[in-house]
Amino acid sequence: MAPPHNPRRLGVWLIGARGSISTCLVYGLAGLREGLLEPTGIITAKDPFTRMRLVDLDALVLGGHDVCQRDLSHSAGELVRHGILSSDLIVAGSGLAAEYEKAIRPGTLDDSDVGFADLDSRAARLSSRPPRDQIAALTADLADFKRDHKLDRVVVVNVASTEAFRGQRDEWESLVAFEAALDAGKSQPASLLYAYAAIAAGSPYVNFTPSRGASIPALRELARERRVPHCGNDGKTGETLVKTVLAPLFTARALKVLSWQGYNMLGNRDGAVLADSAHKETKVRNKNEALRQLLGDENLHTHVGIDYVPSLQDWKTAWDYIHFEGFLGAKMSLQFTWTGSDSALAAPLVIDLVRLADLAQARGEVGEMPHTAAFFKAPIGGGTHDFHAQFLALLAYAERHNSARHRA
Amino acid sequence: MAPPHNPRRLGVWLIGARGSISTCLVYGLAGLREGLLEPTGIITAKDPFTRMRLVDLDALVLGGHDVCQRDLSHSAGELVRHGILSSDLIVAGSGLAAEYEKAIRPGTLDDSDVGFADLDSRAARLSSRPPRDQIAALTADLADFKRDHKLDRVVVVNVASTEAFRGQRDEWESLVAFEAALDAGKSQPASLLYAYAAIAAGSPYVNFTPSRGASIPALRELARERRVPHCGNDGKTGETLVKTVLAPLFTARALKVLSWQGYNMLGNRDGAVLADSAHKETKVRNKNEALRQLLGDENLHTHVGIDYVPSLQDWKTAWDYIHFEGFLGAKMSLQFTWTGSDSALAAPLVIDLVRLADLAQARGEVGEMPHTAAFFKAPIGGGTHDFHAQFLALLAYAERHNSARHRA
Amino acid sequence: MAPPHNPRRLGVWLIGARGSISTCLVYGLAGLREGLLEPTGIITAKDPFTRMRLVDLDALVLGGHDVCQRDLSHSAGELVRHGILSSDLIVAGSGLAAEYEKAIRPGTLDDSDVGFADLDSRAARLSSRPPRDQIAALTADLADFKRDHKLDRVVVVNVASTEAFRGQRDEWESLVAFEAALDAGKSQPASLLYAYAAIAAGSPYVNFTPSRGASIPALRELARERRVPHCGNDGKTGETLVKTVLAPLFTARALKVLSWQGYNMLGNRDGAVLADSAHKETKVRNKNEALRQLLGDENLHTHVGIDYVPSLQDWKTAWDYIHFEGFLGAKMSLQFTWTGSDSALAAPLVIDLVRLADLAQARGEVGEMPHTAAFFKAPIGGGTHDFHAQFLALLAYAERHNSARHRA
Amino acid sequence: MAPPHNPRRLGVWLIGARGSISTCLVYGLAGLREGLLEPTGIITAKDPFTRMRLVDLDALVLGGHDVCQRDLSHSAGELVRHGILSSDLIVAGSGLAAEYEKAIRPGTLDDSDVGFADLDSRAARLSSRPPRDQIAALTADLADFKRDHKLDRVVVVNVASTEAFRGQRDEWESLVAFEAALDAGKSQPASLLYAYAAIAAGSPYVNFTPSRGASIPALRELARERRVPHCGNDGKTGETLVKTVLAPLFTARALKVLSWQGYNMLGNRDGAVLADSAHKETKVRNKNEALRQLLGDENLHTHVGIDYVPSLQDWKTAWDYIHFEGFLGAKMSLQFTWTGSDSALAAPLVIDLVRLADLAQARGEVGEMPHTAAFFKAPIGGGTHDFHAQFLALLAYAERHNSARHRA
Question: Residue D43 and residue C336: Cβ atoms within 8 Å?
Fold first, then answer.
C-alpha cells in the first residue's frame, strides 16, 4: 500500500542536531504548538501554500545526528542570552526538547573538522572507519528513528556547519565510480555519506549547507534511481538574499554596476568554522557566482569577505557597497547594512523545505526540486539567481498543485 | 493616411525645459549621437526593446516650456560643477543646446509657485489670464513647434518641479464638469492646463512629476475621447525604486515589517520646492502608499522625510531603516543609504517613456499605458507597486509586440 | 558639626522613579552588589576617580517620585523583553526593587503631561493645587525619606520624561520674582517645583532631563543662597555625544562642514513624549546649539529629527549625515548609525553624577558644578561642548581633588 | 650669517612628484595664489598658527623625484574626471605646473615596485646601482634644485606610494651599522635612501607615507647629528583619523569595545599598490596599533581590511563597525561610512607640515617634531594616538612659540 498522502507522523532528521538552527527549530515548533508564536518567517503558513496538502506542523517528530557533546539546553541558553529565544519559549519547549534530545545520535565527523572543540568521542571513532561502515551506521540510526517513533516517512536535512571545500573528483562523476570508491574504502567528505545514507534509505534530503551533500552527479543519479526528491545547496537567508533581490534592479534599469563589495561578520559556530579559509572557500564561491550571473558580467569587480567576530554571536551583520554608473557616466552608490539572526532566519525555511520535500515525495516527484530555488544560494537544479523569479516559480508550482487537486 | 509608424522626426516637448532633467537630456542625447556616451540607464537600448520598432534617438527634436529665465548654459554649468555632466559633453552638446534653446517658450506658472526666484515675466503674465487663454497659448506653442520643425508627431513630457498639492475637486471628476470650470474661468493647477493642451492637440502626454497632470478623471476621459495614450505619475528613480524592490522580499519570506523609516535629503531646485510643505504633501503620499500596499499592512508604521540640504545639490541621498521581525519574534534590521543624481537617473527614463509613448500612439493604443507602471511611483493605471512584477509586465508587452510584428 | 565626608548612607531620590532609567539603576546596583555585573559605563569606577573619596555604591539608598501607577516589575519586564536587562538581574534585584518600591511617592504632574496614559490619581490631584502646596508636599516626601531611612544626605535626580518647552518668563529671572510668583499661586512647570523643593531642602540636584529644572536664574540664585551644588541639563548619552566628539575634528582639520543632518528614532516612553512637538522643541534646541558652537558657524545648515518608532522600544537608533568640504572644494561625507539603549547608557551616568554631587556638597562646593559638563547636552555653567575638552576638565577636577587630599 | 628666519624662497621637494597628492598640491597652491580657493583643510591658515612666523604660501617653490613617466597633466586630467580638481584650477595652475614639471627628476625605485606600470627607465637604471651611488644622485638633484631656484632652504616630503614592508634589520639600529651596510653596497628600501639624502643635505624631512623613511634608529641618529628636524610616518587623513577621534570616547565613558572592524576600499594608485599583501602589511600595522593603545586592550578583537576597488579611484570609502557593551551588559553598536578624496585630504596637511618643518629648522629644533603627532598614524616620537590630545599638543606648541616671539 502506498504511504498516506498527508502523513500523520513525519520524521525530521537533522544533521547538526545540536546546532543553533536545530535549537531554533525545536523551541519554535513548541512555541507554535502552544500558541506562543505566530508563524512569522514560515512561507508555507501563507496562501497559496496553505491550500496545498502539506504536512501539519503538529505531525513533525524530530531527531538527528550531531558530532558535538554539548546538550541542547546549552545551545538554548546561548540563544536566550543573545536575545533570540525568549525564556517563555524555553519553558514551553522543555518537553519537546527532552524528547528530541533522546532521538539524537552521534554522527560522523568530516576530516576537516577534527580538532574543533567539544567533539563526541563516538563521532570521532565513527569517522575513522571505512566509508561503507559509516554509511551503515547512519542508515541504522535512520531506520531506528523511523521504527521507534512509528513514522510514516522521514525527511533528512543537513544544517551542520560548512565542511572544508574539496576540488572536483572523478569518482563523484557517476554512481558507478562513487560506489567503487566507497568499496575501495576511499575517505569521503561527511556530507556525502549523510546524503548517501538518506537517499539510499528512500528519504528526501535537504542540503541547507554549502557542503556538497547530494549535489555531486553520483548522488543525483542515486536519487533518480531510488526515485527520491532532494534539494539544496546553502540556505539563502541573509546578505545573499538581499543581493539577489537588488541585483536584478540594476539590470532592469540598465544601470552599470562597477563594483559590488560585501563584508560579512558573524560570531556563531558557523563563523568560527568559516574563519578557516578552507571552509570559507565553499561559501564565497556561491556568493560571487550569483552576482556575476544576475548582472550578466563575468568580469564584475566583486568581493565577499567573511570575518569571524565572536562578540556578534548569532547576529550576522553584513555591509554591502554597490558602486554603479548611470546615464552620462554619473557614478552613484547604494550601501546596505543587514543585521539578522542567521539561525532564526534559517529555521522557518527548514520547516518550509521539510514540508515541500515530503509533498514532493508523496506526489512521486524525483530529483532536484527546481521549485525550491528561492531557498538556496546555489540551487542544485541551476537556473536564475533572481529571487523574485525564483519565488514566482515557487508560486506557480503551488498553483499548479492546487489546480490539480481541485480538478481531481 | 496614417502617420508613419516609425517617425523620421519626433518632437519631444519638455515642460520644465530649463530644469536639470531636461539639461541632462539635451547633453546626453548629444553625447550619444557623438559616440561619447554609452546608453547606460536607457532600458529601451537593450533587448528585447531593441527589437521593437521604436523611434531612433537621432530622430528626436527637442523643445519645451519653462517659467524661468536662466538660460540652459547656466543649468549645464551647475551640473558640471556638481560632477554630473563632463566638460566634454558641454562642448559636444553646444550645437544641439543652442537649437533647443531657440525652441523654448515661456510656459504658465502654477499659482503656488509665484514668488519662487528667477521667473520669466511672460510666464507670470500668462498665468494671470483665464485658463482657456492659457491653454490656447500653450496649444499654439505646440503647433508652432510641430510646424517649424516639420515633425511627424510630438510627445509632451512634464519634468517640471512638483506643484503644490490640492485636494480633490468635483470639477475634475468628469470632462463635462472640467470644461465647464474652464469656461467659467476657474483657476486650475498649471499641470492640468499643460496636460489638457497636449492631449487636446493629440500628443501623447508623459507626467514624470507628482503633480496631477493627466491623472484626473476628466483628463483621462479626454485622452480616451481623443484616442491619445498617456502615462504617469512621478518617476520612480531612487529611494522609492529601492523600496519597491525590497518590500516584496519581506512578503515573500513571510517576515513582518515593524517600521519602515525613510529620510530623503536633496539640494536641487526640486528640493527647494519640496521644502515647502504644500509641495511635499504630494510626494510623501506617493511614497507611503507603495509600501503599505506591498507589505499588505494598512497600519504599517512608516515615515518619509524629505529635507532640503542645499549642499547636496542634485545628489539625492536617502537613508532607510527597516525594522522587521523574523521567526521566534527575533527583531532584525536592514538599512540602506542611496546616493544618486536624480536628474541623471530621470533623463534616460524620459527617453524610454518618449519612445514607448510614441510607439503606443503609432499602434493606436489609447489611455494609461499600464505597461509603463515600472517607471512611476504612482502609476495612473494602478496595479501592483512591486517593481519586478511591473518590469515583467513591461517585458511581456515588448514580447507581445515583437511576436505580433514577427507574425505580421 | 559638619556632615560626614563620606556618607555611610546616601539617599538617591529619583524623579521619574518608575521609568526605564530608574529601573536600570535599581537592578544594575543590585547586580553590582551581587558581583553579577562589571561597572561598565560607570566612569567613577575607574582611575583617577577611584582615588577620590566618593560614596560607596553599597551606601546608596533609593527612593523617588513618579506620576505613573504601573509598578517597577512592569518596567523591568519590558526591559527584559527588549534584551536590556537579563533574567538573572531580575532575580538578583528583587529584594532591592521591593524596598525601593516602598520608597516611591506620587509626584506632581506637569500641565503638559495631563492626558498621557497610566497616571497616578494622587499625582494628578497634587498638580492641580497651588505651587506652594505642591512644593510643600514634595518637601515632606524628601524629609520622610531621609528620616525613615536614617540617611546622612540625599541627592535628588530628575530622570523623568521631557516636559513641554516654555518660553522665557520674567518671573524666572530672579529669586525674588519667582518667590512672588509662587506666592501669587502662578502655575509653574513641574521640573521647577521639584528643583525648588530639593534645593530648599539642602539637597544637591541633578537635572538629567532637558526640562528647565534648576537652570533658571531664580533657582541658580536659590542654590547659591542655600550653598547647594547642582548640575544639568539633559544627559549626553547617544547621538549628541558622538556629535560633540566628531565636530571638533572638522574644526581641528580646518574642514568646512556644509550640512549636518541627524535623524533620531526611538520607541520608549521618552519617544512617545517627544513625538509631541511642544516636548520635542526643548530637545532639538540643545542638539543644534552644540553643533553650531563647535563648528563656529552660526549659519550652519543643520537639522535634527526625532521620530517615535514604537518597535524600537528603548533602542535609540540615529543616523547622522555630515557633508563637508576639503581642500580644492572637494566634497566629502561621513555618516554614522548609532544603536544604543538610552536607559542603559543613562543609568551609569546617573550613578557618576550622584557620587560627584555628593562629593561637591561634602567639599562645600556651591552652584553649577562646571566639571560635570561632559555629562550634559546643555551644561548649566556653559562652556565648550567639545566632549574631550569637557572630559579633560573633569579629569583635572579629579586630580586637583586627589592632590589636595594627598597634601592634607 | 644664519639663513633668514622667514624664507623668501622655500623649496618643497616632493618624492612622488607626479602622484595625486603632489598634483593636488600644485594646482591647489595655484588656486590659492589666484584667489580661486579658500584655504580649507590648511590648519596653519587659522589662528593661532597665523600668528606664528610661518613661510608664506607664495614663497614655496616646488620640485621633486618620481619613478613614473606620465606627465603631470595626465594625473591632473584624472583628478578632474574624478571630480576632485575643477577645470578652472587646471587653467589657473598651468603656469605653475609647467615650471614644476621642469623641476622633476627621475627618482630611485624600491625593489618591490619593479614591475608596476609606467616606469621611468632612468629611475629603473638608478635603482640597480649601489646605494651610495643612488644617494649621490638624489643629493645632486637636491643641490641643483636649491641652486637653480635660488632657494633659502629646502624641505623634503615623501608622498610616494607605500613600499613593501620589511622586517627589522640589525643594520638599521645605529648610524655606524647603517653607514657600513651602505659602504658594503647592501640594497636598501628606497624610502631610506631618500631620507638619508635629505637629512645629510641638511633638509628637514617629512615622511607622509607608511614606508620606513627616517624612522629607523640609524636615520634618527643622523638627523640629530646634522641637527635636522624631521617627522612622520603615514599621514592620518581618513578612517584612522576618525578612529582616533572616536576611540577615546569609549574609554572616557568606560564603555567596553568588544570588536572594531574596519573595511577600507580605494581605487587610486595607492590602492593598487596596497592590493599587494607585502605593501598592505605596513599600513595595517599602523592602523591596528592605534586602536589597541587608545582602548587600552591588547587583546581587542580588531580587523582592518584594505581592498582595491578601481572604480572608486581617489575616493576612499571606509566602513567601520564598532560593537560595544554598556551598563548591564547591553550590547550596542556604532557604524560609520567615510567617503573622502585621499589626495585632497593629504595635500593641505603636506602644506602644514612643510611650514612647520621649516619653522622648526629656523628655530634650531632637532629631531622628531613631537608636536606634529596629530598629522600621523604612526608618529615617530611615539605618544598617544588620541587625536584631540595630539591637537592640543600642537596648539600648545604654537602658543609657546607665539608667547616667546611676543616676549622677544
Answer: no
Flag if D241 and C253 touch (Cβ within 8 Å).
yes
Chain C contact residues (CB < 8 Å to A)? 80-81, 83, 86-87, 337
**Which residues of chain D have a Cβ shorter than 8 Å from any chain B Cβ?**
80-81, 83, 86-87, 337
Give the burial string for C252-266 (b: 16+ CB within 10 Å, else e). bbbbbbbbbbbbbbb
CA pair distance D42, D348, nearest whole angstrom: 5
Q: Which CATH superfamily is domain D10-235+344-405 in?
A: NAD(P)-binding Rossmann-like Domain (3.40.50.720)
Cis amide prior to D286 (ω within 30 degrees): no
DSSP for D60-129, written as a single string: EEEEEEESB-S-HHHHHHHHHHTTSS-HHHHHHTHHHHHHHHHTEEE----GGGTT-SSB-HHHHHHHTS
Query: What is the mean pLDDT for each group of 10 consecutive residues in chain A (408 residues)?
Result: 65 96 97 96 96 94 92 87 89 94 93 71 85 97 97 97 89 98 96 98 97 96 98 94 96 96 88 73 74 89 91 94 97 97 97 98 96 97 95 96 80
Task: Decide if B374 contacts B387 (C-beta within 8 A).
Answer: yes
Range D24-46 average pLDDT: 96
Touching subunits of D (3+ CB pairs, under 8 Å) are A, B, C
Angle between helices B190-200 and B131-148 in degrees, nearest 10: 50
C neighbours by CB contacts (3+ pairs under 8 Å): A, B, D
CB contact under 8 A, B259 and C312: yes
The Cα–Cα gap between C115 and C267 comes to 19
CA distance B83 to chain D (A): 6
Q: What are the pLDDT digits (tens) for A69-121? A: 888 888 898 898 888 998 889 999 999 999 999 999 999 988 877 766 577 77
Encode pLDDT of D224-249 as tens digits.
999 999 999 999 998 999 999 999 99
* For chain B, counts of helices (H) and of strands (E): 13, 10
Residue ranges covered by each domain of chain A: 10-235+344-407, 239-341
Closest-CA residue of chain A to C83? A83
Give residue-wise pLDDT tens across range B209-234: 999 999 999 999 999 999 999 999 99
pLDDT at C397 over 90: yes
Q: Is A328's CB within 8 Å of B344's CB?
A: yes
What's the CA angle centered on A230, arms A225 and A234, to 5 degrees?
Answer: 140
Average pLDDT over residues D331-356: 97
Q: CA nearest C317 in B: which residue?
A: B321
Cell of C263: 535623524
SS (H, E, C) C14-55: EECCCCHHHHHHHHHHHHHHCCCCCCCCCHHHCCCHHHCCCC
Q: Which amino acid is at A232?
A: G
CA distance C57 to C10: 9
> What number does CATH give the domain B10-235+344-407?
3.40.50.720
Map grid coordinates 509586440 to a residue: B401
The dihedral over CA atoms of D267, D272, D275, D279, expressed in degrees to the nearest 10, equals -130
**Chain C residues lying within 8 Å of A331, measured CB to CB:** none
Domain at A239-341: CATH architecture: 2-Layer Sandwich (3.30)
A391 to chain B: closest CA residue: B252
Output the pLDDT for position C1: 37
* In contact, B183 and B132? CB cutoff 8 Å: yes
pLDDT on residue B116: 63
Cα three-residue angle D33-D34-D35, rounded to 5 degrees: 95
Are residues D307 and A261, on separate chains, in Cβ contact within 8 Å? yes
User: Which residues of chain A are within 8 Å of residue D331 when distances are taken between CB atoms?
Assistant: 311
Which CATH superfamily groups domain D239-340? Answer: Dihydrodipicolinate Reductase; domain 2 (3.30.360.10)
